[in-house]
Amino acid sequence: MIRTIGIKDDEFIRGDVPMTKEEVRVVTISKLDLSDSDIVLDIGAGTGSLSIEAARICKTYALERKEAALDLIKKNKDKFGVSHLQVIDAYAPEGLPDDAVTKVIIGGSGGKMYDIFESIEKYPIKKVVVNTITLENTTKALEAMKSKNYKNIEVVTVNISKSRSVGGVTMMMGQNPINIITGEKNEN
């Protein structure tokens, strides 16, 4: 179905909406351990880069509230021909699909991290991956996972630097560090 994960950043239609970079997408998708039978919910989908990567493997919902981001998700959905992607124009935790979601990505929480974890309890979740750039959201995600009895909780901080030619030499330019928090749901 797919050749590999890790679509190049410059292949996406971009705007002013933040996008999860290629290397972070690869780690995030890897941590989800997706199969074609999974159903993914990407909360705070932004440009939809993670949703597109996931939808190349399995059925995926992209939940986003910002108009500019929704437009980009739809354009990227068409560009990459991912028929397994459904776009939902809503705030989390409202607007969640009725489908039996098994894997969740939280890229944006709108300050409602705990409410989101509370609302996804209705699903037969196997794994949740939360990507954060602030220590406060990392802490909130960890606290929410612990309070909901997730197991095998792991935080990986990804620091990416990319080369750039400057005055005939190559300089490494650092990007924002990203915390990738993974948790598995305890069987009830």
Task: Summarize the SSE layout with pairings.
Layout lengths: L21 H11 L6 E5 L5 H7 L3 E6 L2 H14 L4 E5 L13 E4 L6 H7 L7 E6 L2 H13 L2 E9 L2 E6 L2 E6 L3 E8 L3
Parallel strand pairs: 1-2, 1-4, 2-3, 4-5
Antiparallel strand pairs: 5-9, 6-9, 7-8
Give the strand order of the largest sheet, numbering strands 1, 2, ... along the chain: 3-2-1-4-5-9-6
Percentage of residues in helical conformation:
25-40%
> In CATH terms, what is the architecture?
3-Layer(aba) Sandwich
- The number of domains is 1
Briefly characterize the structure.
This protein is of the alpha/beta class and 188 residues long. Helices cover 28% and strands 29% of the residues. The chain contains 5 helices and 9 strands, in the order αβαβαββαβαββββ.
Structural key phrases:
Rossmann fold, 5 helices, alpha/beta, 7-stranded mixed beta sheet, 9 strands, 188 residues, two-stranded antiparallel sheet
Report on the architecture of this protein.
It contains 5 helices and 9 strands. It is α/β, with parallel strands linked by helices. A 7-stranded mixed beta sheet has the order 3-2-1-4-5-9-6, sandwiched between helices. Strand 1, helix 2 (about 50-55) and strand 2 (about 60-65) form a beta-alpha-beta unit. Helix 4 (about 115-120) runs parallel beside helix 5. It is globular and about 55 Å long.
